[in-house]
Amino acid sequence: MTILGIETSCDETSAAVLRDGVLLSNITTSQLFHSQYGGVVPELASRAHQRLIVPIVEEALKKAGVNKSELDAVAAVYGPGLIGAILVGLSFGKALAMGLQIPFVGVNHMEAHILSNLIEDPKPEFPFINLTVSGGHTQLVLVKHPLDYEMLGETKDDAAGEAFDKVAKMLGIGYPGGPMVDKLAAQGDPKYVDFPRPYLDENSLEFSFSGLKTSVLYHLRKIQFDPAKQNGALVQNLCASFQASVVDVLIHKLIMAAKKYRVRDIAVAGGVAANSELRRRLLERAKKEGLRLFIPKFEYCTDNGAMVAMAGYLKMVEGRTSDLELTAEPNLELQ
Is position 335 within any domain? Predict the structure, then answer.
């Protein structure tokens, strides 16, 4: 079974080819021009996807050594994300499937992130707890079997990735904020400022990072911080202190969920999963707790077609296909 996966939910245009669960290609291009605006501009993202979708799909097929006529199904994301961006990949995927007279599979973007842990070996054993930390989402999910999930907790306001981007903007260090904060934090002192750890209730598996973001804002006002007159060491220390708070909360709740549901395997997915401090400290904590940690390669953490192709493949194995009337759902929840 050969599947083409298409991802266009935000600012990455990506396509991948998967055959019998084995990845043959994964081509992704990021829209770096958004950095000059301090964030993704939806209209510009949609137009860029329109320009890129055909050459990206063609390159994915070429690298995989697969002709369009050999495809058994096409999978594409239909939410959540930016509606205009989603529509580009979704419309292209449905049209291609209709033209080739093969099944089409609509994929939940958050579900695809979870399944990115199944792209390559080693893979977690079921059931496992997955922490998805992407730009707009922070979720803890109990993965019982492929395509069978239980939502344990998610963000009530700002997601971790959003908090990284907003704090980076306050500090004037550019967009996307996550990689910039991570890079600068490596040279800073995480104890420089004791920012709050928003754990919420003692046993809560929910997340909230808006208060932490506000604490950073108030601290910057207190010290009269001016992004135009950056002090290198000061920015590094602020990044390290903020990042330490976020990482503390993410690790605490992931480990708490693993103990509560008595699972041995834990996994992390999404763009923030590429954060070096989160990876380092989570590896240490998992070893200490006797847990097995799984984190996808960097190219499978950010939005990518490989995870969509994997989701499409698993759905096809169970005979789950989508109607061509399927529409984009920007606020789609994990089922």
Answer: no
